[in-house]
Amino acid sequence: MDRLQENIENLLQLEEEAQRKLKQIKGEISVQKMKGTAVNATTAIADGVSSLFGGSKVKKLEAENENLKRNIVNLQKQVQAKQREQTKNGKLSQ
Fold it and tell me: What's the Cα-to-Cα distance from 64 to each of 24, 43, 55, 69, 82, rounded to whole Å?
């Protein structure tokens, strides 16, 4: 009988701990949702300000950024091709 009572008490303690953890996790989820909302609001504000004060400049910079990214990819491909060529030439001369 004492052992049964101990098991019941242990289970009640585990349940209480689980409830505390659940409450903590729900709080953390709520905080993360609020942070996400704040980020979205900040982005919307920044977009609004951008459109008021030179949205075309931002678009131009974004287009230039994309162009630079493409150039980087092309250069990386050229480097890889040169490395393959050197490896191939190195194997042929051995």
Answer: 46, 21, 14, 9, 27
**pTM to 2 decimals?**
0.41
pLDDT of residue 61: 81
Give the list of residues 6+ apart from residue 50 with CB closer than 8 angstroms, or none.
58
- Residue 84, Cα to own-chain centre: how many angstroms? 34
Q: Residue by residue, what is the 3-state secondary structure of the chain?
A: CHHHHHHHHHHHHHHHHHHHHHHHHHHHHHHHHHHHHHHHHHHHHHHHHHHHCCHHHHHHHHHHHHHHHHHHHHHHHHHHHHHHHHHHHHHHHC
pLDDT band per the 50, 70, 90 thresholds, residue 86: confident
Region 52-81 average pLDDT: 86
Tokens (6 digits) for 42:
């900040």
